[in-house]
Amino acid sequence: MKELEFDTVVYGTGITASLIAASLTRNGFRVLQVDFHSSYGGDYRTFTFKQIISEQDVVKLPEDSQGISEEGEQSPASQQLVDQLGKNNPLYEHKVFYQVSPFSDNVDSTHESLLRESSRYAIDLWPKFIYSKSAAVELFLRSSSDTYLRFCSNSGPILIGREGEPELNEVCNSKGSIFRSKYLEPMEKRILMKFINELSDLVNTKVFSSDSLKRVDFEVDSQGSRFQGLEEDGTELWVDFLRRKNFTEKMIELTSHGICLGGNEYKEWTKTDGLKRLLKYVESIGVFGDLGGCLLYTLYGTSDIVHALCRLSAVHGCTFMLNTFVESVHTNEGKVSGITLSNSIFVKTKMLISEYLIPGHFVEHAQVLEHLHVISFVTKTPLFEGPNIAVLVPRSENDEPIHVIQTDLDSGTAPKGAYVLHLMTVDKAPPSHLTSFNDTTGVAARLIDAYKSLPVEIESTALALYTTHKLGDARDKIAQIDAHQGFLGEKDKETNDTDKVGFIQIPPPKGRPAVLLLEEVSLAHYICARLLGKEVNNLDLYDRIDLDKFLDFEKAEEEVESSPFDKLDEIIEKFSS
């Protein structure tokens, strides 16, 4: 059996895992990154149509729902994985279901068209937007991964509507948009304008003084906080604070769901929680364009973030193995000493960081609190111009809002005249059972009903794709992570600490909000800092203080002359000065 040796093995190529691998590699550690999938990204993979029909965990739903087996039709690669691992293996829990032309009979011609233009599609399993001013943007700049990335801004203000209704309205992001709004009554407009003026005075900014919103400067106090004055009465609930400002329930929904992109958890926010989210939205508006957008989307799909990080890791010596899973973990006195891979390679290592559960080893599951349910549709009908987000306020107060993400030619994810619509929501319910997209139950049925209520041509839907993602809470594994404080700093000596077993399970994200890249950066920073023995505090996802310490990257001394992310440094400097 061939034998290799690495300081750390990272099992998985999701965003958090790839951030960890890149950071450790840049810090001089020998890292092996392994994934049993045939492509990079894990939950954040992006597919062409040809990849959809060949990927190992993708299941095709037959066009005729009569007499369908429970499992549906599996690709050869998928069946091979089942043969290798067994259907009850945790590695095979995550399935993706798809159906061509789910709401019409044009199956053959649609299939041919999708195949012909396969390479022009980039369909995310979990699409992510990034705040224009955020830790993620800073990280891409400092790590030189911006060399491999290009972004587009969302086409304008976020949109809001109600579940089951076709009308979508702009979320108010300026005085002008407040007065133009058809979503608010005249009295509500006056209340909102008064609130915004008070907020502008509180944070010493004239952010809503004009429609442009292209420059936002917050005063920073001597302790480095942008939010001076916000901590007063910080224990007051967000909803109580808004009601004290005479907000109606519709205004609370607009602010909490549409601007702050919160779910029903906003009812538990403190005043400070809500204001920080509101200000994160405000400070990102118009940074990269004049359309009032506050978000960035990765050209060619979310998995390009992973590709950029993996390229960066490879440049600094990281080794990658796809189509490979961890077959067994070897321990010595309860501590990791090595792993055996499915390709019959033994890897000597004392540190294993895993996104996936490893059957028979370290089986303490990270708590799964909820699931993110995602259905993606390829259609010929756009909901709005360019890539953007719409929030559908739920009909029931017990349901979470539905987020609708549209990507298109401008984002490099669909050919001209085609659009990808992702509908997603968080729910405690497990993955829905599907035999056909015309025969669904549970959360999937709710998402499909919401899709059919939107102003789209249902019959023109060329493809439907359904998947789920486990959601949890990083605090569920904090004790395990904290136990490895300084573990990699001890690479040249043995430790007798029985809690330092050499295994960290990356907990699933909380998914609040599910549409933004926030938690992944924070969690990767926390894990790396602990492993390297550096001081770390719980990070506020909406605060930009000390962004230079998010991960242990240093900007390369030699700049790439023709960066594909043109003039990004100049733009950041211009709007941050």
TrEMBL record:
One Pfam family from the record: GDI
GO cellular component, one term: nucleus
Coiled-coil regions listed in the entry: none
UniProt record, GO biological process: small GTPase-mediated signal transduction; vesicle-mediated transport
Source organism, top-level taxon: Eukaryota
InterPro entries: FAD/NAD-bd_sf (IPR036188), GDP_dissociation_inhibitor (IPR018203)
Any one GO molecular function term: GDP-dissociation inhibitor activity
Family of this protein: Belongs to the Rab GDI family.
Protein name: RAB GDP-dissociation inhibitor family member protein
Protein species of origin: Theileria equi strain WA
